[in-house]
Design a protein that fits this description.
The chain is an alpha/beta fold. Helices cover 37% and strands 19% of the residues. Helix 3 packs across helix 4 and helix 5 packs across helix 7. The longest helix has 18 residues. The two termini are 25 Å apart. One of its GO terms (molecular function) is hydrolase activity, acting on carbon-nitrogen (but not peptide) bonds, in linear amides.
Length: 240
């Protein structure tokens, strides 16, 4: 794609809730923007549908889950995020269910964000690169849950009052990016946050995409060709 990316709007909001399927989903690109926003004094919280327990081929799920939770909490703190929650849906088998929508809507009502960040929910990352079911299903549930959170007649068991203040859903890793954030000054934090998943990355072995600094820098430069040749991370921005 060669279309110029627009600047992601950074005025008129103060709270972000990032909702993804697994530990490390946000670290593959989005945390450069998150570090920028926390530097600006914005509140950012994470909600993860699973603990990523099925993601390490050399470690049984009962052991892998706590490892990945600990790595995610450390990674979040490196970009200024202290609030990290896990829903404990089964890694690799997450369904786009009413129950998942309800749990996401509950978090939206409780945290009251104006911006939601999620991971690519499309069928592919790009030509010939198939996306996985957990990403597709969580992303789809996020889009529905934003509207669910605003409807007072849905999920009436949730204690927090309805919230209709979400302005945008920003989809990281989308093949249809429309906007970008300059991460020139936060690349170090972005790299450190991905490196915090070291035991997971070691588990990937030859399947790892590249060392964090190499991978994230290459991706930021590529996105930057559509954004004034700055180091950047892209988002597909959906107005709600």
């Amino acid at each position: 794609m060669t279309d110029i990316l627009e600047q992601f709007p950074e005025d008129g909001w103060s709270r972000v809730l990032a909702v993804v399927a697994h530990p490390d989903d946000l670290e593959y690109g989005a945390t450069g923007a998150i570090a920028r926003w926390t530097r600006m004094g914005r509140w950012v919280g994470y909600l993860l549908a699973s603990k990523g327990e099925a993601g390490m081929d050399d470690v049984p799920p009962a052991e892998a889950g706590p490892i990945r939770v600990a790595e995610q909490i450390t990674a979040a703190r490196l970009v200024g995020v202290e609030d990290v929650e896990f829903l404990d849906y089964p890694d690799g088998l997450i369904e786009e269910s009413v129950a998942l929508r309800r749990d996401i809507a509950e978090a939206i009502r409780r945290h009251r964000p104006e911006v939601i960040v999620t991971i690519n929910h499309h069928s592919h990352w790009g030509p010939g690169a198939l996306n996985m079911a957990d990403h597709r299903n969580v992303g789809g549930a996020v889009l529905d849950a934003v509207r669910d959170a605003a409807n007072r007649w849905l999920f009436t068991d949730i204690e927090s009052s309805p919230w209709s203040g979400v302005k945008w859903v920003a989809v990281a890793g989308s093949p249809h990016s429309t906007h970008a954030v300059d991460i020139t000054d936060t690349m170090d934090e972005a790299v450190a946050s991905l490196e915090a998943h070291r035991r997971y990355l070691d588990s990937l072995g030859e399947h790892a995409m590249a060392e964090p600094a190499e991978f994230l820098s290459a991706m930021a430069r590529q996105t930057g060709t559509r954004f004034g040749n700055r180091m950047a991370t892209g988002f597909e921005v959906i107005a709600m």
